[in-house]
Design goal:
Length: 231
C-alpha cells in the first residue's frame, strides 16, 4: 500500500502515488498513467514494482485539466471522459511534469541511484518521449499510441528503451508499426517486441483485450530489462 506525495513544478504542484519496497530502498521507477488517470491499475503496477524492490512513483498527469482523475475502462461514460481528457492533454507539458517527477523521485529517501520509467497507452507515448527528452536511465513503453508521429526524436534516445507492440493494435496500424521499426531499428538502444495477434492494452488487467499469456511475457521482459539496467 502506497501513499500520496506532492511534486513541485514552476507551474504548481500535483499529487503522485508512491510505493516503496519493504526494505525502504531501491532504484526508482516512474509509472506513467493511461488515459484513465492514476487509477487502481496504475497503483497496482506501482505496488508490484515495490514488491520487486523498486521505489515507484506515478504522477497525476491530468492535474492541469482535472486533478485526481481515477476512472476505469468498464463503462461508456468513463471511456467518453477518458477520451475527452486525452483530447485536452498537452503532451509537452506532460513531459515537463514527468521531468519534475524524475527529480522528485531522486529526492525520495531510499532511492538508490538509477531511475527508469514505464508507461502504457498514452503513457507508452510519454515513455518514448521521456527517453528522448529527459535524463532517464531506461524506459519501457507498452503499446504507445501516436509514436509514429514523433519518430523524428528517435535519434535522441541514448539510453535503453524497450517497446512492447501489439500486432493487431486498433490504435497503432501496421504501417505505423513499420515506421516505428524502421526509425528505431538503427538505434542500438532500442528493442521492439511484437506480440502476435494481440490488440491494444493486452496487459491491462480486466480490460477487454487482456491476454494473460502475452501480459505475462511482456511483464517478464520488463522485469528482466529493469533488472539489467537499474539494479
Amino acid at each position: 500500500m502506497g501513499e500520496k506525495i506532492e511534486v513541485q513544478t514552476e507551474g504548481g504542484a500535483f499529487a503522485a502515488y508512491l510505493a516503496k519496497p519493504a526494505s525502504g530502498k531501491g532504484p526508482g521507477v516512474v509509472v506513467i498513467q493511461e488515459i484513465f488517470g492514476v487509477n487502481r491499475n496504475v497503483r497496482e503496477i506501482c505496488d508490484d514494482l515495490a514488491a520487486a524492490g523498486y521505489v515507484a512513483l506515478a504522477p497525476d498527469l491530468f492535474w492541469r485539466i482535472e486533478p485526481g482523475v481515477d476512472i476505469t475502462d468498464q463503462s461508456e461514460a468513463e471511456w467518453a471522459k477518458a477520451f475527452d481528457l486525452f483530447g485536452k492533454f498537452n503532451v509537452d507539458l506532460g513531459i515537463t511534469d514527468i521531468a519534475a517527477t524524475i527529480k522528485a523521485l531522486k529526492a525520495v529517501p531510499g532511492v538508490t541511484g538509477k531511475i527508469g520509467a514505464v508507461g502504457h497507452c498514452l503513457g507508452g507515448l510519454l515513455a518514448y518521449l521521456t527517453a528522448a527528452r529527459t535524463e532517464i536511465d531506461c524506459t519501457v513503453s507498452y503499446y504507445g499510441v501516436n509514436i509514429a508521429s514523433v519518430l523524428g526524436e528517435a535519434a535522441k534516445i541514448s539510453k535503453p528503451i524497450l517497446l512492447h507492440v501489439a500486432e493487431k493494435d486498433q490504435f497503432v496500424p501496421a504501417e505505423a508499426q513499420k515506421q516505428m521499426a524502421d526509425a528505431l531499428g538503427p538505434n542500438a538502444h532500442a528493442t521492439m517486441i511484437t506480440y502476435a495477434g494481440q490488440d491494444h492494452a493486452f496487459a491491462r488487467v480486466g480490460g477487454a483485450h487482456h491476454n494473460a499469456g502475452a501480459a505475462l511475457a511482456a511483464n517478464a521482459a520488463t522485469a528482466a530489462f529493469f533488472a539489467a539496467h537499474l539494479k
